[in-house]
Amino acid sequence: MDIQEYFGKCLEIASNPENYKTLLIGAVYSLIVASIAWLMGIVLGIIGASLKLNKNKFLRFLGNCYVELIRGTPMLLQILFFYLIMPTLITLITGNAFRVNKFVVGTIAIGINSGAYSTELIRSGIIGIDAGQWEASMSLNLSHWDMMRYVILPQAFKQVVPPMVSEYITLIKDSSLLSTIGAVELLYSAQIMGANYYNYLFPLMMAGVFYLVMTFVISSIAKKVERRLAESD
Amino acid sequence: MIKTEHISKTFQNVKALDDVSFQIRKGEIVCLIGPSGSGKSTLCRCINGLEIPESGNIYIEGKLVDYRDEMQAKEARSKTGFVFQHFNLFPHMNVMDNMILAPMKTLHMSKEEAIAKAKELLQRVGLADKEDAYPKKLSGGQKQRAAIARSLMMNPQIMLFDEPTSALDPEMVMEVLEVMKQLAGEGMTMVVVTHEMGFAKEIANRIVFLEDGKIIEENTPDLFFSQPQTKRAQDFLRKVLY
Asked: Is B92's CB within 8 Å of A143's CB?
């Protein structure tokens, strides 16, 4: 095969609209995985941050364990754990065959991973609030809950929006790791297409374009939101 | 009304307060003065439980308060208002929302009632037209007046002022002092940590002079400023007065 043939093949793939549709569907799956994992991460992040900022030593310890364990090991390993080890363990323990959906376990694994990073983002957003705000709330006799709800968290939220958006963008890219367990998201659709045509140039480059478009659109929206938030204070 | 007995507080091996006993009666206005790091702010903050002394007792209206106990802290703080050097308004809320948040949440005041009271107080501190403004849009003097009004919303019987004019541009000091003077005229019990000697002389019933975490001298303003008894007070006054 010479270089002309190589690019000719590429044009052949590019001229078939079905191929774009396949990649687009893959991109939608990637986006869904990233979105659900991100939301899950925010919920886990709020829980993790309240553990890590808790007065109770044991709860703080739990929060630390979660964050260190997740951040200290590769995300791919965590995905493989949930896909290869957890179902087997459950099957052995319960005695009933436990089957998993690749997308479901994959999303859970990424969500749990993201939660550890979100924990740190939210925690630093909260402790970044000026001590004077806590003191003013205290001297006004606000309860701990009212202080968090009306004074601290709204201010922390604003600080946390930009890093949370980059977390979302990271997750869109990291969702490609699910291709390793055979979940047909954007990257794996491209790989399958490449294998069918014996030519990876167009599918992989086009997948890259899809990732770029998604991340670009999200960061543009985020910039607008940040500007709106900045105006209100 | 407030009594501290032998309170001590140490920050990283520095004794901020060293066995300080201090008392203030109803209706009295006491100014705490002294060089930076003398412990005057720490004393003021201990009274409101923003710092917890390692030893000693604090009594608010005759009741011993342990600020580590949430119930006791809440009860004691319901009697005191605190004004900070850096105002500490809530930046994400406009002036009105700053005013009505705590009364609605902790005193269970209705929104209408809280707004009516806030309007009255803002009128009194000369900020009637600023209720919709965010703190960012206010000058330092306006911020501090709003902060004073905010703490008055909670019906305190004692007001604690921790260097209320130290963070202000000179031309804004007066407007804040005027509000405090007005409050003093209404019979409010006040503890004021301040560097404004003229103000202390004019409104205080008593001056408490601190240095190195100890009360060095305590007297009426007339006597304190004209005939300071201790050498340290004399030195201090020589440095701060022209």
From this structure: no
CATH topology of domain A3-232: MetI-like fold (1.10.3720)
Q: Cβ distance B30 to B192 under 8 Å?
A: yes
Record: contact A138-B136, CB cut-off 8 A: no
Instruction: Return the structure tokens found at B225.
Output: 């400023």
| Model pLDDT for residues B147-161, shown as the tens digit of each residue | 999 999 999 999 999
Cβ proximity of A138 and B50 under 8 Å: yes
Q: Tokens representing A88? A: 């087997």
Task: Name the DSSP class of B137.
Answer: G
Give A141's contacts in chain B (Cβ within 8 Å).
74, 77-78, 102, 106, 154
pLDDT digit string (tens) for A122-173?
A: 999 999 999 999 999 999 999 989 999 999 999 998 889 999 999 999 999 9
Q: What is this structure's pTM?
A: 0.82
Distance CA B183, CA B145 (A): 12
pLDDT at A233: 57
Strand order of the sheet with strand B55-60? B14-24, B2-11, B55-60, B63-64
Give residue A1's pLDDT band: very low, low, confident or very high (50, 70, 90): confident
Q: State yes or no: pLDDT of B121 exceeds 80.
A: yes
Q: Which residue of B has its CA nearest to A153?
A: B92
Question: What does the buried/exposed string (b/e) look like for A53-87 if buried means 16 or more CB atoms within 10 Å of the residue's CB?
Answer: beeeeeeeebbeebbeebeeeebeebbbebbeebe
A130 and B88: CB-CB below 8 Å?
yes
Within 13 Å and on the Cβ side, how many CA atoms surround A119?
A: 26
* B88·A232 Cβ contact <8 A: no
B48 vs A: CB within 8 A: yes
Burial status of residue B169 (CB atoms within 10 A of its CB: 0-12, 13-18, 19 or more): exposed
Judged by a CB distance cut-off of 8 A, whether residue B77 touches chain A is yes
Spatial CB neighbours of B149, under 8 Å, sequence gap ≥ 6: B99, B118, B121, B122, B124, B125, B127
CA distance B52 to A51: 25
Query: pLDDT tens-digit profile of A224-233?
Result: 988 888 776 5
Interface test with B, best of A141, A143, A228 (most B CBs within 10 A): A141
- Round to whole Å and give the CA distance between B50 and B13: 19
CB B192 within 8 A of CB B200: yes
